Every structure is written in C-alpha cells, then in structure tokens.
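Hi R.,

Here's the chain you asked about this morning:
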Amino acid sequence: MAPAPAAVAAARPLSLPCASSPRQGRQGRACSFHRAAPSAPRHTRVLCKSAAVLPVQEPGRCSRLRRRPLCSQAEVAAGATVDDDEACELVSGSDLVIGEGDDSVRAHLFRAVKNNNGTGILLLSDVFGFEDSATRDFAYRVACNGYNVLVPDLFRGDPWKPSAPFDEGGFARWLAGQAPARVSGDIDACTRWLVDEFKAAGVSRRLGVVGFCYGGARLVEALARDADAGEGGRCFSAGVCFYGSRMDASLSARLAAPVLFVCGDGDPLCPVETVRELERRAGGAMAAVYAGRGHGFAHRPQSVEEDADAEDAFNAMRGWLHDHLLA
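And the predicted structure, written out as tokens:
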C-alpha cells in the first residue's frame, strides 16, 4: 500500500517519464541479509569509449537473454520510445579508483548519455556491496533519469556474503570489521570527487545522496558531517534514505539537507519510530511509510504487491530529487 502523505505524491514531477518496474526481467531476494545466488557471468564489455575506462562485467546490462528494466520504455526525450539496444546507450558505466594507495576507494560511475542534467548522485549500497546486481540495477535506473550516479565500494572488496541459515554471529563479526572511521573517510573522499567532477567544474550547483539499509544509516551520518561544514562548505542539497538500518536519530537536528525517508511498517531493522523521530526533528524531512512492507522492498521487491510499492517509492524518490536538485 502506498504511503498516505499527499505531499509525497505532490512532489512527483509530471513532466518526467514513468520508470519501469524494478522486477521487470529479474528476480532477487528481500534484503534480510540473504541474497539470491549471482546470475551466470555475462560477456565482458567496455561500457564507455573513454580510454581511461576499464572493461567490466556488468551484471545488469541489457541483454536479449535477460531484459533489463528500462529507464522509461515510454518517453526518454521528445516523446520517443526506445528498445533494449537503445536503452543500453542511455547510460555509460566506468570503473574508477578514487584516491591513492591504502586510501583508495573503488567505485562505479553510471553516467547519463543522452539526457544528462549534469547533477551528481552518491549512492550508498546495502551490505551486499557496490557490485550487487540489485544495487546496480537501481543506480542504472536513476542514471537513466539524467543523473551521474557514483556507487562506491564501502567494504573495500569485502561485502557481506550471505549464508543459509543466517549466521548472526558471523554477520556481527563481519560488521565489526567495517571500521566506521574508514567507511566515513571513503564516503567523504567520494563526495569530494563528486564536488570536483561536477560542482567545481561548474556543471552542477547541487549534489544528492541516496542510501539503502547499511548505506541509509551512513547517509544520515554523512549529511550530519556535511551540515557541520557550514553554509558555504556544504556539498549535498538533498537525500533519500531507504530503510536505513541502525540509524542514529540523535543526528537529526544536525541535518541541513532535506531528506526523504522511505520504509515499511514491518521492518525490524528500520523501526518506524526512528523514522518518525528523524522526520520530526530534521529540517525539511519527510517520511513515506508503506503499510505491510518489510526490509528491502524498494530495490528487491518479492511480489506483485511489493513491485507496485517499489515503483511508487522510486517515483517518490525521483520527484524528491527533481524538486531539490533540478527545480
């Protein structure tokens, strides 16, 4: 069921094409720290013609064997329709290494090609990491709407590898190995890269940040640090947090950028009470709470009903970013 606040619906720009379903052509598992086995490897291909781009295996690229969820399938520009092959050309992808030596961070950049609005988005993944197909599919869809989406490797090549049954002790040990100071430093380094790439170059005046689960909690922390930089030093103008796990609600008063918090009312990892407190205390925040939904429904929908709410949440995010970054 869609969230009640009419303001979320009102925020959706009618001029933007409707994104296709995230479940179209792929299946995944709900983000309850379990994940479906990876699909068979695809052909390695260069996703961008730049000489600096490395050939990468892209699990979510278009294929006649597995249909990718297109960014629009309706109007991408001037009301034109696109097929699979043309949709592949709407976004280029490249592997990056940000920083040097032990402080370097791997990342993947999805860059809109035909309708680029010059705006950068930092996307912080869940515990499955930046190479997970559900995360990359979502980043691709965001880029299809004109953005340049940077997805960093928050775990330095060591994402959570799920087991069945779920190993709570093993997960706790893995999580303890992800040093908060190191993760925060990597996020800040990627933020500076986006500033240099888009803001300092005069391409865009605003940056946005999107986070899921683990990345949602890091989003709250990153925006609090960003606000501490003061009016002239802030980097982000908007954020969208999808079911952030273990979020620190005490940081809410420090958030300066408007944040849309998306969650389900049946998610033990993201209690509605925490989300409501963040909404109440953070300036310009809004919560979209979906009845009957658990963790991960927006980027890992598991049913037709979840698919509809995932689509609604994606459009709410798209409207929020449009209003705060482009309007």
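Confidence is low (pLDDT under 50) at residues 4-85.

Let me know if you need anything else.
M.
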